[in-house]
Amino acid sequence: MTAVDERPITSSIATFFEDLEVPEGYKAELLRGDIVMMAGPDRVHNGIVESVQDQIPRKRWRRLQTQDIAIPGETSEPQPDLVVLARGAEDGPGRLIPAPAVTLLVEVVSKTSVDRDYGIKRSMYAAGGVPAYLIIDPMAGLCLLLTEPARKGEAADYRTTRTTKFGETATLEMLGVELDTSDFETLPDIRRHYRP
Q1: What is the CA radius of gyration of the chain?
Q2: Measured between alpha carbons, how far is 112 from 61 in angstroms, rounded to an integer?
Q3: Is the pTM of this model over 0.90?
Q4: Which of 91, 111, 140, 144 is the most exposed place for a label (fewest CB within 10 A)?
Q5: pLDDT digits over 94-146, tens only?
């Protein structure tokens, strides 16, 4: 006879993740039960995040980097490149911001994050009901704005997709912002598993 422990491991994974000591220069995310560690980002990546952040009005919006997000119903605590939420939507201390409080999440694609940003994170953010997800891809030279999240779990996705090439203006209606992408730098393209 074999004994099987059928208790969910969700809480033990989350506790382990919360207590995880990440080496300096790295960041860690919990993505549907998997812990993913990444080295610090490229200068091009950081320049794009800085440009986006600078174009979002600070008086109305909180623009947070290195902020962990809690996705309801998921064993996930992603750390998007930029989290945008209305001032007052979520105040007070704490490491996690609940996804329903967020207006826009931004990920800038790197050669090691491309499949996660276009795949699992797209599904997770939609499952969490995040109204808008902006993928900025310096290898393809484009921005992909995803809106209208639908469905739950791994089947979740966004109904609406709008693509903007670098150099064009990306309309972020949910923020009332016309995002100027003309100063976004590019990186050499890579062979990816997932194509937008």
Answers
A1: 17
A2: 29
A3: no
A4: 91
A5: 889 999 999 999 999 988 888 899 999 999 999 999 999 999 999 999 999 99
